[in-house]
Amino acid sequence: MLLSIEDLRKSYLGPEGPVPVLRGVTLSLQAGETLALTGESGSGKSTLLHLVAGLDAADGGHVLLDGQEVTRLDDSGRARLRRSAVGIVFQQFNLIPSLDVAANIAFQARLNDTPEPRALSRLAGALGLEPHLRKYPEQLSGGQQQRVAIARALAARPKLILADEPTGNLDEATADEVMEQFLALVAETGAALLMVTHSPRLAARLGRQAHLSQGRLL
Ligand SMILES: Nc1ncnc2c1ncn2[C@@H]1O[C@H](COP(=O)(O)OP(=O)(O)OP(=O)(O)O)[C@@H](O)[C@H]1O
Fold first, then answer.
1. Is 197 in the pocket of ligand 1 (CB under 6 A)?
2. Any idea where the ABC transporter domain is (predicted)?
3. What span, in angstroms and rounded, lies between the C-alpha atoms of 93 and 214?
4. Which atom of ligand 1 sits closest to the CA of residue 212?
């Protein structure tokens, strides 16, 4: 199993004490599987993704990713696992403004010491980014920026891609086009995908669906 989440719990401190967001979430994902995570706004979808990525700490439960217990790693261990096993695509593209497109795409692969120039240029080609490689993020449209973020996530050849509404900031036509390319590349690389989406239409395109409600998965 690539990812096993067991009885995961997380509360945030509100003005009147802790507010539970995840009340015991259990979920597993095999290598190469794709799963859409749906749920109302505020139901904890992003929180769940952040815990899996080790970007935040859980209050209880387990996240076993690629054989490692994320909840027991220290900060540097979580950062290492995130770099080597996980690719993340957020709704806000989170590109590095001071790096050009080529350097942004190579960024995570470089941190991992796994940049393969041929693979990087193939990804740039598949996403239509070749004409933009020397541009900086601010010179790109939203759709182009998200393509760069997708290329960056895939370039490090992660076993798991975590995507949080990856086309949520794009107009419908661009969103459809970017999503097509994204799903095709995920399938091609054989990565597993855990993707948050509000769209039932998009969710239906993934292998499995899970719905987060009242802090639990249905
Ligand atoms: N750092 C934080 N501190 C306090 N409360 C937080 C924090 N992050 C999230 N929350 C709260 O936890 C709940 C779940 O937030 P989360 O962002 O995980 O929901 P979501 O399902 O991703 O929502 P959306 O679909 O609107 O993006 C919300 O009520 C939110 O206000």
1. no
2. 3-218
3. 29
4. 21
- Residues 6-44 have pLDDT tens digits of 999 999 999 999 999 999 999 999 999 999 999 999 999
What does residue 127 show for φ and ψ, rounded to 5 degrees? -100, 10
The reported pTM is 0.94
Q: In ligand 1, which atom is closest to the CA atom of 43?
A: 21
Instruction: Quote the ipTM score.
Output: 0.96
CA-closest residue to ligand 1 atom 6: 12
Nearest residue by C-alpha to atom 5 in ligand 1: 12
